Amino acid sequence: MPALPFDALLTLERRVSHDGLVSIGGNYYSVPDRTRRVVEVHQLPDTIRILDGGRLVASHPILEGRRQYRIDPDHRQGTAARAMRHGHPDSLPIGRHGDHVARRSLAVYQAVGERLAGGIGGQR
Q1: CB contact set of 77 (below 8 Å; sequence gap of 6+)
Q2: pLDDT for the residue numbered 80
Q3: For position 86, what pLDDT does the model report?
Q4: Burial of 102 by CB count in 10 Å (0-12 exposed, 13-18 middle, 19+ buried)?
Q5: Is the Cβ–Cβ distance between 39 and 14 less than 8 Å?
Q6: For residues 28 and 45, is the Cβ–Cβ distance under 8 A?
Q7: Number of Cβ within a 10 Å radius of residue 100
Q8: pLDDT tens digits, 87-122
Q9: Is the predicted pLDDT of residue 14 greater than 70, yes or no?
Q10: b/e for 30-60, b at 16 or more Cβ within 10 A?
Q11: Three-state secondary-structure class, residue 113
């Protein structure tokens, strides 16, 4: 037995998905935009470390269960990333993390529907 505690390490190779995620143990972990398509993964008892060309690019706590996502907002660039980081008040996440849709009153959609139907709200 070793005199000092040590972490068991499982080294894997994984392909980064088109939306910047790496699948490990049935869960998904983000990597920064522009990370190369194949990465090395170090799975420790409580942490996932993702390396690109030998350089650490992401570290996440291991998720329990399956089909869960751990997305670091700092891994994303552009408008959607800023909205994720700063909690954009006029949009909600939909579908995948980073996708947003504007919040509108249902009255807006009612008026559009009526106008398209040539009904009460709109004259043609």
Answers
A1: 33
A2: 57
A3: 58
A4: exposed
A5: yes
A6: no
A7: 17
A8: 554 444 445 555 556 677 888 888 888 889 886 544
A9: yes
A10: bbbeebeeebbbbbeeeebbbbbeeeebbeb
A11: helix
